[in-house]
Amino acid sequence: MSNVLAELIASFGERLVVAEIDAAGLRIFEIRVDDLGTPYLTRRAAAKWPTLTASGEQILDAVRGLARELVPAEEADPFVVLLGAGGAEQEACLRALTQWRPSAQVVEAPGTPVEGLLRDLIADSPLRQAYDLIVARERAKDGRLELVGRHLFDPGAKPGTTAQVTVTCTDAGGMLLAVSAWTGPLQPSGLLSVDHAPLAPGRHSLRAVLERPGVVRFPGIPGLQPDTRPWAEVTATVPARLRPPAGPAHLVCAIETAGTAAELEARCHWAGCLLDVLDERCHDPRPQVSIVGYGTHVFGIKHPNHALPNVAVWSASPARARIALESLEPTEPTYPNAAQLEDVLAETSTRLLPQPADTRTALLTIGARPPHPARSGLDRVPPCPARYDWPDLLRELEQRHDLRSAVICDTLPTSPSSPWHRLGSAALCQVDAVNVDELTIRLGLVLPSSAALVLPFVSQNEDFGDRP
Question: Mean pLDDT, the chain, as a whole number?
Answer without folding.
Answer: 87
